[in-house]
Structure prediction request, 93 residues.
Amino acid sequence: MEAEQACKAIYKTIKNCRNGGRTPYQKILSEAYLHNMEDYKIQQELGYEDSQYYIKKRQALCEFADRFEKWKDWYSIPYFKDLHIYRKNKNGV
Prediction:
């Protein structure tokens, strides 16, 4: 039951991500993680150069982390940790 709720939250999070011309985050995440498509194929489909694609993919993953907070609460799966990775500033904080 918990695994089913987790899958629903992940699916809903991906489907809730932006999917515009400059923000094809839903497309990137859906193809990569729901359809198991390789990065180079997604990159070609979207028409991005290598470095540009990986920037978009990183942005998509950040958006996923932001939106997952809502859906993990919605589906009552609080055991997932915060997916964000915070950088330390030069003061070590």
Summary: The CA atoms of residues 45 and 92 lie 41 Å apart. Residues 50-74 form the longest helix (25 residues). The chain is about 60% helix and 0% strand.
